Amino acid sequence: MSQPLPLRIGVLGSGKGSNFVAIDDAIAAGQVPAQVVLVASDVSEAGILTHAAGRGLPNRFIAPGPFRTKLDEAAEAAYIGALREAQVDLVVLAGFMRILKGEFLRAFEGRVVNIHPSLLPSFPGLAAWKQALDYGVKVTGCTVHYVDQGIDTGAIIGQRAVPVLDGDTALTLHERIQQAERELYPAAIAAIARGEVKVKGRLTAGFAGGA
Ligand code: GRF
Fold this sequence. Notes:
Layout: E1 7-12, H1 18-28, E2 34-41, H2 47-54, E3 59-61, H3 73-85, E4 90-93, H4 102-107, E5 112-116, H5 128-135, E6 139-146, E7 156-163, H6 170-193, E8 198-200, E9 203-205
Parallel strand pairs: 1-2, 1-4, 2-3, 4-5
Antiparallel strand pairs: 5-6, 6-7, 8-9
Bound molecules: 5-O-phosphono-beta-D-ribofuranosylamine (GRF).
């Protein structure tokens, strides 16, 4: 029987790119049957683009337009065009600081995933690790989920719990959550690539490493 082709992934990020690096390392180690076909960023000097370039992977700054938290119509079309041109099967958001809605989600329906630094549905939105610390929870973590029209509301694919320790600062807690992210995200993408993640409404099943 012929092997299925590796999943073609396009990664969008605005920051340092540690999740992207973990995903690409796991691909290189043969743990994820995928290939990164495009890395794109709304921040021209983002670390994620430098990492991609250093790895010889196609990388592009795509100007986001005038808004701070979303793409304008022209920018949205440019992102859709670049991802389509690269023939991506899955759009992987790895610290992309713009809300994607409407046209973009229709173009890649059911094929956009994100990682969020809390155990959703707790603490959606910005600086979720700080929200968790300020609230006083004893356990937080990270979540990989499909992206829908809401903010951090899509079907949950997998989660990792992370303890909040006495004396944690926002910095130490965030670092511990990011370590968990770097394990969870490659494992979740591997499960998607192998066709193991089945979605029924907002429920998913089949990802053995999901918790
Ligand atoms: C991660 O902590 C993720 O939870 C959030 O953005 C951050 C991106 O970090 N969505 P990096 O750029 O992957 O290092």
